[in-house]
Amino acid sequence: MAAAPARTVEPLPLSASPAATRNDQRGRRHGRSVIPSAAASKTLLPSGCFDVQEGLTSIQKTLQQRRNSGREMMVTIDNLKRLCIDHHFEEEIESAMGACMDLLHSNDLFDATLAFRLMREASHDVSPDDVLRRFTDDTGEFKLALSKDTLGLLSLHDMSHLNIGEEASLHKAKEFSTKHLASAIGNLEPAGLALYVRQSLDHPYHLSLMQYKARHHLSYLQSLPNRDTAMEGLAIAEFQLSKQLHQEEIQEVKRWWMDLGLSDEISVVRDQVPKWYMWAMTALQGSSLSGYRIDTTKIISPVYVVDDIFDLVGTPEELSLFTQAIKMWNTAAADSLPSGIRSCYKAIYTITNEIADMVEEEHGFNPVNHLKNAWAVLFDGFMVEARWLATDQAPTAEDYFRSATYICTHIRHARV
Is Lipoprotein given among the entry's keywords (predicted)? Predict the structure, then answer.
């Protein structure tokens, strides 16, 4: 596995993949570049000592070599997933699920819980009770001897966050693993393991942003005596390319936003592109979804603008006309609105129809009716709050919760 130290990297050749190619074509249809060009990448990424193709080949060979070693294969797959580079090896990972099934019945806590987690993550039907009953005593409590198995407890803790209902055994697993990991931190060696346990307790893997956890996991792997430099190098390359791509997407949205001019027309409107982009970045991960992140951010931005208009700009009459115009959904509906609000309406109308047309082009159906119904529900919710404000009402927490529940429920139904 020896490879050059993974300190400086070349960009990943993502534009050669089918997903990236489709995304690039979509970007060109929209008149933009959504995947960094090779030239642009080289100006941002240091060139030199890590060859991505060699790294991919090296990891593929490792997966082939470990096909007959269940634990090593599962640990390798887990590391690939935690470093957010597993998408390069989907076929190899899928073919290894048989090894997971074998380890599921292991009497080793680490092996059995890791196998369960990987299988449940891959949507296989596995029962936590079947896995965990081997590690409990006659009273149904976890055996105390397991409290000394740090890696097993870490894996049990990860597994416990995959509760898909009222799975009591996973609730017990979380309590047991959290208690004994927390008490063991002060005595763990090496220091890198203690830090990793602390981070796992504070920010559980399945409750955290994957890219955020990937950096922690990479630091942990780099602290181990036996390092896989090919895997480390590929992870660093992927991270740097993703970082560059996110920066380019933010700049594209910012250019679009400045051209829109709403912050010039409506003084209270704030330029908060990174804030609007955050949800799209976390929900839509991967280079092949670049264009979708941009479009999602564009549709999120007017929600904040409308919120400011309802709170700080419009009179009750103007807000009522604004809501009626949204429900009418045509350009003439905006004629009776004040200038700034009219511009906001036209922006919503244009963005929504553009996205609906894009969906029809790519998927064969036009969701514009669902989208405009979702806007109407959101505006009705804003109108409720506007009436509270206009009449100096102080709604209770229950009132706010009821209004928010109505909006979320009906927007969801409007989209199906």
Answer: no
Q: How many CB atoms lie within 10 A of CB 54?
A: 14
Under DSSP, is residue 378 helix (H, G, I), strand (E, B) or coil? helix
Mean pLDDT, the chain, as a whole number? 86
Burial class (CB in 10 A: 0-12, 13-18, 19+), 238: buried
Helix or strand holding residue 212 (H, E) = helix 210-222
Distance CA 34, CA 166 (A): 43
* Helix runs in 96-167, H state only: 97-103, 109-121, 128-132, 150-160
Q: Is 136 helix (H, G, I), strand (E, B) or coil?
A: strand
Domain assignment present for residue 9? The answer is no
Same domain, 348 and 220: no
- Distance, in Å, from the CA atom of 365 to the CA atom of 94, rounded to the nearest integer, reads 32
For residues 200 and 157, the answer to whether their CB atoms sit within 8 Å is yes
Structure tokens at 176: 């047991």
* pTM as predicted: 0.76
At 172, which CATH number? 1.50.10.130
Is position 8 within any domain?
Answer: no
| 144: containing domain | 14-234
Q: What is the pLDDT of residue 11?
A: 36
Q: Are 190 and 223 in contact (CB under 8 A)?
A: yes
Q: Where is the domain boundary, 234, 259, 281?
A: 234
DSSP string, 324-374: HHHHH-SGGGGTTS-HHHHHHHHHHHHHHHHHHHHHHHHHS---HHHHHHH
What is d(CA 252, CA 33) in angstroms, rounded to the nearest whole number? 9
Instruction: Summarize pLDDT for 362-413 with one digit per residue, the tens.
Output: 999 999 999 999 999 999 999 998 899 888 888 899 988 888 887 777 665 5
DSSP 312: I
Q: Which of 182, 203, 234 is the last residue of a domain?
A: 234
Do residues 257 and 117 share a domain? no
| Residues 44 and 123 both lie in one domain | yes
| Predicted local confidence at residue 412, as pLDDT | 59
93 plus 172 within the same structural domain: yes
- In terms of Cβ atoms closer than 10 Å to its own Cβ (0-12, 13-18, 19+), residue 211 is middle
What span, in angstroms and rounded, lies between the C-alpha atoms of 415 and 8?
A: 45
Same domain, 100 and 224: yes
CA 405/CA 416 separation, integer angstroms: 17
Say if residue 228 is in the same domain as residue 280.
Answer: no
Q: How many domains does the chain have?
A: 2
